[in-house]
Specification:
about 525 residues, alpha/beta, Alpha-Beta Plaits, Rossmann fold, 7-stranded mixed β-sheet, 18 helices
Length: about 525
């Protein structure tokens, strides 16, 4: 192979890659000859339009094209060409061959090297060439026709975009083979996307970038009310789901599963107590479960204990924290036990057909975190078999009231009360008295067969344990991670200084019930 020669271009060049979507499927449906005619028609249109806007088609590569734009206004010229090519495929008559072709285009701007490889093939190489190629590939993932990089967007101001198109940002994208993340821009056809819709989408993206996931979700949810959602499912679903994942993980009890497991001594002991009450009820009923649902399974340690106890049963653990489920699958899912972990909330959980109901639903120290209690217990009743059992452990009203009072004092002293309306601790934790719990179960179709309220002593680690779990109900209201960290540390210092563990109220409800 001969030596390659190259020459550096001082002026920026805009690179455009075009590719035919689902080319293999087209081959299967139409055959080689018809596809050749289609590609010939498309590439003829493409070459004419690129030349019209001052560009050059450098290569035809299989079902794709690479074009370059040099000189003045390279970005504007490339965008004008791309949008005209896109309109050609969208507005062609039914008899036109290019009508049946969907395309994706990636565009990037930067310095390149002109080079000849092996004395045979002249080409351009450079970082922007790689970016344009990766953006073209990303079009398929987001069902987008035109994606451009930040430099192209900057070099062609919003006022210079071709008529009928608006840009929207897709932030922090990982492009294969490129080490840093990129902000990518999608050129939207305003015949398919109204300005109102694109503005809502862009508002959501800006809030998403600022990590204001609730506000971002509000914008994306409002966008869902627009008809354009049918043309934009890939991107809209991507951002909506990303918001939900971050909100759910931020608000989940087991926010950091490693730290939670380190501070879960109390919960482990309480799960054993609940199991003891469950066993006693099962002996009286002469009952052994086959299908078990563990609600709020966390990192899976209690779920594994359940599965070991009932080794012939199939068990599903659900939790609203993806990180906890990941840890459970990794560390508490031995092959000899039939355990499956799923990311889900009890109020929304709808099992697969093979598990349309369970003969034991078990929940240790989790139901008091569920905001929508009515929906949760209604779903529990649907999920449990008529001859099944419900076993729940949760906090009794008044539990940890001294720790909650310290949390309120810290909030007041650090002027965090602006984030809390109608402050009424314990925030987001739903504790009941024995009478209230009994009424709740009866209202949702359960009759208690074991019902116990236990007072116990707080362990020496209670302040740190509380800070890593229950305090999250307060931390969720604060704006930034730094505020949450400061609040957590100030709480620990004051609680350690003011409270003796013997003074902390610890009351728990343990109930085993059957459907009525």
């Amino acid at each position: 192979m001969g030596d390659s020669s190259s020459q550096r271009e001082d002026e920026p060049v805009t690179i455009l890659f075009l590719d035919v979507r689902n080319f293999t499927l087209l081959l299967d449906n139409y055959g080689d000859e018809h596809i050749s005619d289609l590609l010939d028609a498309l590439f003829t249109h493409t070459e004419e339009i690129v030349s019209k806007h001052g560009g050059t088609v450098e290569k035809v590569i299989g079902d794709g094209v690479m074009a370059t734009f040099r000189g003045e206004a390279t970005a504007e010229n490339a965008l004008a060409a791309a949008t005209e090519i896109h309109q050609t495929t969208q507005q062609a008559s039914e008899s036109d061959k290019v009508r049946s072709i969907n395309i994706g285009m990636g565009i990037a701007t930067g310095a390149v090297n002109e080079t000849t490889l092996a004395g045979i093939d002249s080409t351009v190489i450079g970082r922007c060439v790689n970016i344009a190629a990766r953006l073209e590939g990303l079009c398929k993932e987001y069902d987008a026709a035109i994606l451009i990089d930040e430099t192209t967007r900057r070099d062609s101001s919003v006022h210079d975009l071709p008529d009928g198109y608006m840009a929207r940002k897709i932030p922090n994208q990982n492009l294969r083979g490129i080490q840093r993340t990129f902000d990518v821009y999608h050129l939207c056809d305003t015949s398919k996307f109204s300005e109102e819709y694109i503005s809502l989408f862009n508002e959501g993206v800006e809030q998403f970038v600022q990590q204001s996931y609730d506000r971002a979700l509000n914008a994306f949810t409002e966008a869902y009310t627009c008809d354009e959602r049918y043309n934009d499912q890939a991107l809209l679903n991507h951002f909506t789901n990303s918001c939900l994942e971050r909100i759910n993980d931020d608000r989940a009890l087991f926010r950091n599963p490693d730290r939670y497991e380190e501070h879960s001594t109390i919960q482990q002991k309480q799960s054993i107590t609940l199991l003891n009450y469950l066993e006693r009820a099962m002996i009286d009923l002469n009952y052994t479960p086959d299908d078990i649902l563990d609600v709020g399974c966390g990192p899976g340690e209690v779920t594994e204990r359940l599965a070991t106890k009932f080794s012939d049963a199939s068990i599903v653990g659900i939790d609203p924290s993806r990180s906890a489920i990941a840890k459970a699958r990794t560390e508490h899912s031995p092959e000899h036990l039939d355990i499956e972990y799923r990311y889900d909330r009890i109020e929304d959980y709808c099992p697969q057909e093979e598990h349309d109901s369970y003969d034991l639903i078990f929940s240790n120290s989790a139901m008091h975190w569920v905001e929508e209690q009515k929906r949760a217990y209604e779903n529990v009743r649907k999920l449990v078999m008529e001859n099944g059992i419900l076993a729940i452990h949760q906090g009794h009203k008044g539990t940890y009231k001294e720790l909650h009072q310290v949390a309120v004092e810290v909030l007041n002293d650090f002027d965090y009360t602006v984030y809390f309306e109608n402050l009424n601790p314990p925030l987001d934790l739903i504790y009941y008295t024995k009478e209230e719990m009994s009424e709740l179960l009866t209202r949702h179709g359960f009759e208690p067969i074991e019902f116990n309220v236990e007072n116990s002593s707080a362990p020496d680690s209670i302040v740190d344990d509380f800070a890593e779990a229950s305090l999250n109900a307060y931390c969720d209201r604060l704006e930034s991670g730094s505020q949450r960290d400061v609040f957590r540390e100030q709480f620990k210092r004051r609680a350690h200084k003011q409270l003796d563990t013997s003074d902390i109220t610890v009351r728990r409800i343990y109930v085993v019930a059957e459907p009525i």
